[in-house]
Amino acid sequence: MRTLCVIQHIEVEFLGLMEDHLESRNIRFRYVRPFTEGTKIPASPEDFAGLVLLGAGPYGVVSGHILPSLGAELRLARAFLNAELPVIGVELGAVILAVAAGGGAEEAPLRLWVDRAARTDAEALGGWLPERFPFAAYLRDRPVPGAGLAVLARDQAGEPVVFAAGERAFGFLGHPGMKRGMAEDVAMAFEETPENLAAGLEALAEVQAEIAHVLSPMMVGLIQRCGLMD
Questions:
Q1: Is the pTM of this model over 0.90?
Q2: What is the pLDDT of residues 149-195, one digit of tens each?
Q3: Chain center to CA of 44
Q4: What angle do CA 84, 86, 90 make, to 5 degrees?
Q5: Phi, psi for 152 (deg, rounded to 5)
Q6: What is the Cβ-side half-sphere exposure of residue 17, based on CA atoms within 13 angstroms?
Q7: Domain count, the chain
Q8: Which secondary-structure segment (H or E) carries 211?
Q9: How many helices (H) and strands (E) does the chain have?
Q10: CATH code of residue 212
Q11: Which value, in Å, is the radius of gyration of the alpha carbons in the chain?
Q12: Is residue 205 classed as helix, strand or coil in its secondary structure?
């Protein structure tokens, strides 16, 4: 069985709806929680088939309260990329992936971002990325795609939402497995919250069922492209 290393930055944000899709394919995942005493970020990809970097609520990469484990996570992400092992970045994790893959990051406010995206490439995720889909993200800062990053989907304003960093690394600014309850728990866990929190939660509730629906083909393509069933 394949085991993914999942870096969890805060207790209330996790893989969400993605867990069922991994478990149904016998793909194991191990949460690593650097916010707990005595837990360290792994030094290498050893014993893992891939890496998942989750969101981090109000933490940032270039603004706000900087993620405490940022340096160690950048080193680990680069190690996985150099080993040509899968890396999946979600929300702030996608920003970290962009930096690790040679792109960058720029300041953006903390936000609960709910919108719709359109793919830019019909072959994205092996053709499994839906042509249009809703997404929800709770994060601050944004990625700056570098020469090695290919944008696979953009929101209605043209901002990157999904990107590829090579053959087996993908960034999702929206959490593919987002639940409204997860966003609510993140908001309650910190004093700093997005200005549009109430409206964002309402918008998330409206697209929750559709997010769950489009996750099925998205996970098929992601697992295939990452080689997690090989």
A1: yes
A2: 999 999 999 999 999 999 999 999 999 999 999 999 999 999 999 99
A3: 20
A4: 140
A5: -105, -20
A6: 20
A7: 1
A8: helix 197-226
A9: 5, 11
A10: 3.40.50.880
A11: 16
A12: helix
